[in-house]
Structures are given as structure tokens and as C-alpha cells.
Design goal:
Blueprint: E1 11-14, E2 18-23, E3 35-40, H1 42-52, E4 57-60, E5 62-64, H2 67-78, E6 87-89, E7 96-103, E8 106-112, H3 128-132, E9 136-140, H4 148-163, E10 167-171, H5 176-179, H6 185-194, E11 197-201, H7 202-209, H8 214-224, E12 229-233, E13 239-242, E14 247-250, H9 263-276, H10 281-295, H11 308-315
Parallel strand pairs: 1-4, 1-9, 2-7, 5-6, 9-10, 10-11, 11-12
Antiparallel strand pairs: 2-3, 7-8, 12-13, 13-14
Length: about 325
């Protein structure tokens, strides 16, 4: 058996990544015959975004011992993310997702992930020594609703991070299609209150807390929870970011959007890189805005994520010359 790599990432994230069939043309799936195989998963998207910005990231998950699992793991590892803690499950398959792209503003997804390998993740897959060397543990609201063992896994990871004084970053990432008629709002609110870094959409904040005004959301999070950094994302309208000392609006970065999926994860990853670099919350937000905008310019989740060079040029107000 090969020995595990000794990389100890700055940011660790945990969650399911699926093999994704992306249509080569727009329209209803019943008329599509050609697809490209890509990957998609909120947590691995973030890890890839972090790696592209020259920080170290690790992704913990479970994959089926099948061709799709190998494709997913190889794709993530090829982007510079540490996958040494991936668990291979011989009894359950890798999850699959299919996109339907009607136009630039309407992308639908269809999941085939029931009983997937990742839905059977449990606390036993966690390596406490690995986690305690990190600086940020990033979680989403997707993982704990995949099943009881995944909920236990999320709670165990939070406890490990809290015991070591590691910052917990959380994006509720509400996926109603996965809720199956259940209300997971109380569970997600509980995790929000434990996190030091909260990254959520404006619509998610309203769904969880009944508050639509970003500054009121922040007032609540800074007084009732453990929040140190908060970003409230509002898609093409930009974002509002803040800490206990300041709150600021971050305008959207100019882009030519073709597919918005993956933009929120790109924002999150870049924002966390700013935190690692000791930047103020406004500059963290600006980094997030750049990454989120560029992510929308391709049909894949992660293909448009910026490199460090692209990020620095964009922040300086320039453009990259490719020839």
C-alpha cells in the first residue's frame, strides 16, 4: 500500500463531488445528444479555487471504487488539491449529476446521488492529526443533510476544529432538491452559530433567519454567534462583507456570464485566501468578487477560476494579455 502524502493543507474541506454530464449545447435535455464529463462539488470547487491562488487545500470525501470515482479524484488532484484522505468505497457508487443549460441565466441540475459513496461518509474517515494542522475548516450545509452518518461526520469535524482553535468556515449552500420535504433550517442555523467565517447568499440568510437586509444579518451574527468575518453574497449585484469593526458593499466585478454555477464557491475560496493572508475584510471581499465573476465565464464549475497572476492583475484594475 502506498504511504499517505505528508502535505498538511492550510484549508481543509469535506463533502461530496460528483461526475457531471454537461451538455455541449443549450436546450432541454431531451434534445441533447453530446455531453462533456466534468466534476462538481461545492467543497472541492472551493479547494480548487484555493489551490489556484497558491494556497494549500485538502479535500476529504468518499468515492465509489469505479471509473467515475477515479475521474473525480484525478481531476481534483490534478488541480493541486491534496486528496490523500479520500476513502474508496467498494459497496457504493460515485454520485452523478446532469446539467441542463437553457441560456446564460437558466441552468438546472438533476441529481443521481441517492445511496452514493459520499452519502455514507462517517466520523471514522476523519484524521484528527490531519485536521489539526490546518488553519481553516470549510464546511457546507450540503454534507450534513446527505444522511445521518454525514451529519455525525460534520459534528465531529466541527468539534475537532473547535478543540484545536481552528477557524470554521461555513456556507449553508441550501439545496432544496436534497431536502426531500424536510426542514433542515434549524440544523444549518446551529452550524452558522458555531462558525467564525460565514459565507452565505442573501436569499439563504432570509430563508434561515427571516432577515433580508445584509447589515441586519451581520448585526445578528456578530452578537449571537462566533462570527469574525461575514460575507453576504447577492450574485450579479455584488456582496456585503464585514467584521466586528466595519461593513462594506463590494460591487460586482465585470464579466461575461455564461453559467453562474460555481461562482459562490469561487467567491468563498478567494475570500478565505484573503483571510489567510491577513487582508482586511474589504480586500477579502474584493478577491471573492473577482473569483466569483470569472467563474461564470465558462460552462464548468471550476474552469474559469483565476490563477494568482490573474487575481493580482484584476485587483490592480488591469487585464491579462494572452498573446
Amino acid at each position: 500500500m502506498l504511504a499517505r502524502r505528508t502535505i498538511m493543507p492550510e484549508i481543509i474541506t469535506i463533502g461530496e463531488t460528483m461526475a457531471v454530464f454537461t451538455p455541449k449545447s443549450t436546450g432541454y435535455l431531451r434534445y441533447i445528444r453530446d455531453y462533456e464529463l466534468r466534476i462538481a462539488g461545492a467543497e472541492s470547487n472551493l479547494a480548487i479555487g484555493v489551490a489556484k491562488l497558491n494556497h494549500t487545500a485538502g479535500w476529504i470525501s468518499s468515492l465509489g471504487r469505479d471509473g467515475f470515482g477515479a475521474f473525480v479524484c484525478n481531476s481534483i488532484r490534478a488541480e493541486g488539491v491534496d486528496t490523500s484522505r479520500v476513502v474508496w468505497d467498494a459497496n457504493h457508487r460515485t454520485g452523478i449529476m446532469c446539467k441542463q443549460i437553457r441560456n446564460a441565466s437558466e441552468t438546472s441540475v438533476f441529481y443521481y446521488r441517492d445511496d452514493s459513496a459520499a452519502s455514507h461518509m462517517a466520523p471514522a474517515i476523519l484524521d484528527e492529526e490531519y485536521i489539526k494542522e490546518s488553519k481553516i475548516l470549510h464546511l457546507t450545509g450540503i454534507t450534513p443533510i446527505l444522511g445521518k452518518t454525514c451529519r455525525d461526520l460534520t459534528e465531529a469535524a466541527i468539534e475537532m476544529a473547535a478543540a484545536q482553535g481552528i477557524h470554521i468556515s461555513f456556507d449553508p449552500n441550501i439545496r432544496r432538491k436534497l431536502w426531500g420535504g424536510n426542514d433542515y433550517s434549524p440544523l444549518l442555523r446551529e452550524i452558522v452559530e458555531k462558525a467564525q467565517i460565514i459565507l452565505m447568499g442573501k436569499d439563504e440568510a432570509e430563508a434561515l433567519f427571516g432577515i433580508s437586509e445584509p447589515r441586519h444579518i451581520m448585526d445578528m451574527l456578530f452578537t449571537k454567534g462566533n462570527a469574525k468575518y461575514v460575507a453576504i453574497k447577492d450574485g450579479a449585484k455584488g456582496a456585503v462583507v464585514g467584521d466586528k469593526n466595519q461593513v462594506a458593499e463590494i460591487p460586482p466585478f465585470p464579466c461575461c456570464c455564461v453559467d453562474p454555477i460555481g461562482a459562490g464557491d469561487a467567491f468563498n475560496g478567494a475570500f478565505l485566501c484573503g483571510v489567510l493572508e491577513g487582508k482586511n475584510v474589504i480586500d477579502c471581499g474584493r478577491m471573492g468578487a473577482v473569483a466569483g465573476a470569472l467563474a461564470t465565464e465558462t460552462y464548468g464549475d471550476i474552469e474559469g477560476y483565476p490563477s494568482r497572476e490573474q487575481m493580482e492583475i484584476a485587483l490592480a484594475g488591469g487585464s491579462v494579455v494572452y498573446r
